[in-house]
Design goal:
This protein is an alpha+beta fold. 41% of the residues lie in helices and 24% in strands. The chain has helices at 51-65, 93-102, 140-152, 163-173, 210-219, 228-237, 245-250, 256-270, 273-289, 310-315, 339-344, 349-354, 362-413, 417-443, 450-460, 486-497, 551-556, and strands at 5-11, 15-22, 30-37, 43-44, 47-48, 71-76, 82-89, 115-125, 130-139, 156-162, 181-185, 190-196, 199-206, 297-301, 322-325, 466-472, 476-483, 504-507, 511-515, 520-530, 560-561. Strands 16, 17, 18, 19, 20 and 21 form a six-stranded antiparallel beta sheet that branches. Strands 3-2-1-6-10 form a five-stranded mixed beta sheet. A hairpin with a 4-residue loop joins strand 8 and strand 9 (130-139). It is elongated, with a radius of gyration of 46 Å. The relative contact order is 0.09.
Length: 562
């Protein structure tokens, strides 16, 4: 079924423009149009990062506007799209696509294996037998991103164009309007297009956009706290730009209020410099290539054209050039009730130009799917034939191979019999080794480190300490001590507790002794130092040793007393 009407959609970082428009008509009719702000953090450089939130908002906006058409044309506004003018041999239209695909690696200085190509034929030279083409390359991930959005909204994708080409198509089809030099100032960028006799001559993208001025105004204190939308309105309603940079430098504010306004206007006027610098480079480049060309008039459109004083400031830097603001696009039909199109039609130029079929990045995808389907059908037939061969021949072959293998295994089994005996001997020796290691572990006691323990105690005990007795067993060490003061007793307790060889140190009640004959006083007490508990290995099976010895028996039989 032929497509007569489409929804043409251009998605920028900040907003979305939609036109319900007749498809592929020289004088298109716009039946409905809407423009809405994107939900925050859903779109970045044309890539829809939060598809669920964005598609919900787009669906609601289309429903509120009464737009029910399901055939869609996407106009991609992205810095990721590459373009280049090339010359190729003259050939039939149906051969161009396969030719540029075969030569894709030679057209761009980077790897574009993950890009999809599309093109616009600019001119054919019958003398040189060559064609002049504008070649575009769009990242595959962007195309897939838009296809996924279309699937989510149940859209049928008719075509995918890009902003630069869509605007060129509109200007080329309306060359009689005289807009051969056209500057489109969008929210985030500016696009300057030059035509010669309706044919593409030059197109350059500049980083300046109307939103950059709005953001500067939001940051200013002159109007207080305002939103970007309010800033755009103030830029359109109030002339906040100086007519020239010389006027800005010569102005001397007389009052404090004038000084505040001067600083605000100065910063905004300085913010336009990137646009003027980029515009200067483009004009100088064009004039160097076309020395006989004379540029006297440039048409300006887009949301930036409504900024009061902007055209005047730009003209002040270019002698002999007039800038004329375009309010309504010629050769576009729309109802009088559509105030959005009547007041802002240049902002919808990409949507209108995209509805005139020219390039289509999604076409490559359709060709790939068709090619894939054909390849799949061939593969399926081949797999069917192969399956028949496998089902009949493989079982018979496997049976014969199994018989032969069985005979070989029988012959080799006898040669491996000695391995079984060696394995049994190894397991027996490992068992005995485990028993010896368990026995050796059981004979290790904490008292084996007694000399080390005694040396540490001698270092730690004060010189005036009297040790009445020391006893040790597997559980710990007990000392009976007399020491002059309670403070020294406490200090000794802390030091003993810091020794890693003891798990716990306890002291009983101190007893004060007073020798009447000498007058010497001391404190007597008993310190119990407990060794860390040692796990006794239990033989496999969970039983105690065959002689009935338990851990308590071992501990009781290893006491040492001095």
């Amino acid at each position: 079924m032929a497509v007569s009407k489409v929804i043409s959609i251009e998605i920028t970082d900040l907003n979305t423009k939609v036109c319900e428009i007749s498809y592929n008509k020289k004088v298109p009719s716009v039946y409905n149009s809407i423009c809405f702000a994107n939900p925050e953090q859903t779109v970045e450089d044309a890539l829809i990062e939060d598809r669920l939130r964005y598609s919900s908002e787009l669906k609601a906006q289309l429903k509120n506007a009464g737009i029910k058409c399901k055939d869609v044309v996407f106009v991609i506004s992205s810095n990721k799209i590459l373009s280049r003018e090339i010359m190729i041999p003259d050939m039939k239209e149906k051969l161009i696509e396969s030719y540029i695909e075969g030569e894709r690696a030679t057209y761009f200085p980077m790897d574009i294996s993950d890009h999809r190509l599309s093109y616009t034929v600019i001119d054919r030279n019958s003398v040189t037998k060559e064609m002049r083409i504008i070649l575009y390359a769009a990242p595959d991930m962007v195309i897939k991103n838009y296809n996924a959005l279309a699937a989510e909204l149940d859209f049928h994708v008719v075509a995918m164009d890009c902003t630069g080409n869509a605007m060129y198509q509109y200007l080329s089809n309306n060359q009689a309007s005289g807009m051969d030099m056209y500057l489109q100032i969008n929210e985030n960028n500016s696009l300057f297009t030059i035509l010669e006799n309706g044919k593409f001559a030059l197109q350059r993208n500049m980083s300046f956009g109307a939103c950059s001025l709005a953001e500067h105004l939001v940051d200013e204190e002159y109007y207080g706290i305002i939103t970007p939308e309010q800033a755009m309105m103030k830029l359109a309603e109030n002339e906040l730009l100086y007519g020239s940079y010389s006027e800005m430098m010569e102005y001397m504010p007389a009052t404090e209020e004038e000084s505040k306004l001067y600083e605000c206007k100065k910063r905004l006027t300085d913010a336009v410099r990137p646009l003027i610098a980029g515009f200067t480079r483009v004009l100088e480049y064009y004039n160097s290539k076309n020395k006989e060309a004379t540029i006297t008039k440039i048409y300006v459109g887009g949301c930036g054209s409504k900024i009061a004083g902007l055209a005047k400031l730009i003209m002040s830097e270019f002698e002999g050039i007039e800038l004329e603001v375009v309010n309504v696009l010629p050769n576009v039909k729309f109802p009088k009730s559509n105030k959005l199109m009547a007041d802002n039609s240049t902002e919808f130029m990409a949507c209108i130009g995209g509805a005139g079929f020219s390039i289509d990045f999604s076409k490559n995808n359709a060709a790939e799917e068709k090619k894939g389907a054909t390849a799949f059908a061939i593969l399926a037939a081949a797999l069917t034939i192969l399956a028949v061969i496998v089902l009949v021949g493989v079982p018979l072959y496997n049976y014969r191979q199994a018989i032969s293998r069985q005979e070989e295994l029988r012959k080799s089994i006898s040669g491996y019999q000695n391995i079984v005996d060696i394995k049994a001997q190894m397991e027996n020796k490992e068992s005995k080794l485990d028993d010896l290691e368990a026995f050796d572990e059981a004979t290790i006691t904490n008292n084996e480190n007694w000399n080390s323990i005694l040396e540490q105690l001698e270092i730690m005990l004060p010189t005036n300490t009297l040790v009445s007795s020391v006893s040790s067993n597997e559980t710990g060490v007990t000392l009976v001590i007399s020491i002059p003061t309670k403070i020294e007793a406490a200090k000794l307790l802390v030091q003993l507790r810091n020794l890693p060889i003891f798990e716990d140190v306890q002291i009983n009640t101190l007893t004060e002794n007073n020798d009447e004959s000498t007058g010497i006083k001391n404190e007597s007490f008993t310190i119990t130092c407990v060794f860390p508990q040692k796990e006794v290995p239990i033989p496999e099976g969970g039983t105690v040793p065959a002689d009935g010895t338990t851990q308590e028996d071992i501990d009781a039989g290893t006491g040492i007393t001095e």
